Amino acid sequence: MSQARTTSASSPASAAPVSASPVSARQSSLRTANLALLAGHVFAAPEPVSRANVAAATGMTRSTASRLADDLVAAGILTELDPSPASGPGRPAVPLAPARGTFVAIGLEVNVSRMAVRAIDLSGQVLAERVVLDDLADSDPADVLPRLAQLTTDVLNLNDVQRARRVGVAIALPGLVSHETLLRAPNLGWERIDPRPFLAEVLEGDGLVLQLGNEANFGALTAGRDRPAAPHSAPSFIYLSGENGIGAGIVREGRVMLGASGFAGEVGHIQVDPSGPQCTCGNRGCVERYAGRRRILAAAGLDETTEPEELVAAWQADDSAARRAVSRAAQALGVGLSAAINILDIPTVILGGHLAPLAEILRPELDAELRRRVLSSRWSVPEVITTSQDQTPAVTGAAWSLLEEVVADPVAWM
Predict the structure, then answer these.
(1) pTM above 0.85?
(2) 332 forms bridges with which residues in the sheet?
(3) Taking the chain, what is the end-to-end CA distance rounded to the nearest angstrom?
(4) What gap in Å lies between CA 388 and CA 373, rounded to an integer?
(5) b/e burial code for range 70-96 (CB count within 10 A of at least 16 → b)
(6) 150-161 burial string, b = 16+ CB within 10 Å, else e?
(7) What would the pLDDT profile of 194-249 be if each residue is shown by its tens digit?
């Protein structure tokens, strides 16, 4: 390998910075790219893979793949599992998989019905979590965020989290987020809030920086996946995050589309009835005024704390109020989603949050609305599917967003 050239102190060039030669720079860049390629392949594989598998899939030589895999194992990004039984001559293959317990990211969430903190490692394993159910509609951030800071402290002080290397902290918020500021979260009643000062004392001791994001975008990261950096079950989809409001994350070819200012995906505020009820956004007749969690339960004559499964039971029992509430919600979702599909040409919809357990009773009318309103439905039939019924996907997605940075650029963490 070519070495960087240095000069003596008496040389006229001694004051200039020493730089690597072009050959060394190219070799370093190639190694960086190959480490990311190898890590990405292992994390994306549905089953643990051997070094030989990685070499064949990536086009690397076996020696290069083996050497880079050793580096990633030593860094705690990958781990070696027990050797597979030999199927022929030679040594048995040693499978590679995402490492457990070595790196950890902390996801936070504040939503209308809860606050949550979750510590997750590279394998997707939850090392610790705290979830507090509460009514946070029209709350005071000066009261809520210190409580979240205490939950974060509790999680950071647990042994499994202490032993791991902290990647960072990200918070999921149900509103418009720009850089370090929550511009507006109508259902929380918050405007122009910077959460960082409330969490500074907790995070600064570990040198952690708080990142902010929209809860639906973070929730979309988890749709159809069981760990960070794995492929989604569908490459492109619209993810609906059901809570008091209706948010959406738009995923195209595995990447969340944020829009020019990060505000893409406000499907819940598509107007479906100009003379409908007033929405917290200032408009009338928005999708979430009919399909939001509290709205659909209230329309069915149920308490707002009722679990969605009870609404399903009432609908199945042919309760007239439940039937009307579900029908109106399905129609509103159909109108809003058909507009989004016509604009984006993404016919796959994944229902999350409170909408996931309601999928089967929403589906008949929702499917009919989409077939009628989506212009391309004759050739590309819209598909409505569900993700896991985790009620806090955004807090998981917040942590995953940070862990995926480790997979995308392992050198920065080695």
Answers:
(1) yes
(2) none
(3) 21
(4) 28
(5) ebbeebbbbbbeeeeeeeeeeeebbbb
(6) ebbbebbeeeeb
(7) 999 999 999 887 788 899 999 999 999 999 898 999 999 899 999 998 888 898 99
